[in-house]
Amino acid sequence: MKLIKLSIIATLLLMLGCDSTDTFTSRPYICLTFDDQHQSIFTEAYPLMEQFGFAGTAFINTAFIGANNKLTWDQIDILVNNSNWEIGGHTLHHVNLPELNYEEAYEEIYLDWLALVERDLPHHSFALPSGHANLEQFSLISEFYENIRTSLNLRHYAPINRQYLGYAAFQTGYSADIIKSRIIEAIENHEDLVIIGFHSFDAAENDQITFCEPEYFQEILEFIAEIDLEVITLHQACELLGN
Ligand SMILES: [Zn+2]
Q1: Fewer C-beta neighbours within 10 Å, C or N terminus of the chain?
Q2: How far is the CA of 170 from the centre of ligand 1 (A)?
Q3: If you measure from the C-alpha of residue 164 to the centroid of ligand 1, how many angstroms do you get, rounded to a whole number?
Q4: Residue 118: which CATH number?
């Protein structure tokens, strides 16, 4: 039943999308984020993103770049320089911030930020590792970053609170329809921004929680393209919709 509803809405959206007098006053921007520097972000997701001309936002732990099964700095440079991807901070070592004292948290956040700055990479956005930070750490992060993404599945309406963003994370075992439904819900609710989060695309990377089959990822991209939503980076969205 839910699938039937989904396909009816998708058909409706397609029909409306063909109408030059588009009646949608508010259609959400889509941000696609990629956390934790898995090698498959480059080998599996990036080529598909290129097919659709979409630029993503990759949140990286800079201490792990170049490690086994992880992105390399050269690959990150390609994402940014060839395809206008955004890179964001995610702490040096993917720490659980609330477990750290001030100095430890400062080092994890500041040195990660500095690694982006020194490589002339974008450094506007930060994603909380595993979604956790205390209030003091929120204000510390905001000394370095304009945009902060939590792990909450929030609805975003302009003016969005760019220091308290949320996302819908693709989870292991999901079908593409779950993410498509979230996008349809956002259109129905006149949300201004939907952030969709991915992690690994290769089962061999042993991501038990947020692994996404490349074919499901492709299906999600096809859906976004079919209903003609605009994919932009997180910082672009914050600049357009933020307070
Ligand atoms: Zn992470």
Answers
A1: N
A2: 13
A3: 16
A4: 3.20.20.370
Give the Å distance between the CA of 169 and the centre of ligand 1: 11
- Distance from Cα 58 to the centre of ligand 1, integer Å: 10
Report CA(4)–ligand 1 centroid distance (Å).
Answer: 34
Cα of 61 from ligand 1 centre, angstroms? 8
Q: How many domains does the chain have?
A: 1
Amino acid identity, position 181: S
Q: Is residue 4 part of a domain?
A: no
What range does the domain containing 61 cover? 26-241
Residue 112 in any domain: the answer is: yes
SS3 of 82-104: the string is HHCCEEEECCCCCCCHHHCCHHH
- Count CA within 13 A, CB hemisphere, residue 131: 11
User: 78: which 2 tokens?
Assistant: 């390609």
The CA 14 to ligand 1 mean position distance, Å, reads 34
Task: Render each residue's pLDDT in the chain as its tens digit; 243 residues.
Answer: 444 455 555 554 544 444 433 444 579 999 999 999 999 999 999 999 999 999 999 999 999 999 999 999 999 999 999 999 999 999 999 999 999 999 999 999 999 999 999 999 999 999 999 999 999 999 999 999 999 999 999 999 999 999 999 999 999 999 999 999 999 999 999 999 999 999 999 999 988 899 999 999 999 999 999 999 999 999 999 999 998
87 part of a folded domain: yes
For 203, residues 6+ apart whose C-beta sits below 8 A from its C-beta are 211
User: Within a domain: residue 175?
Assistant: yes
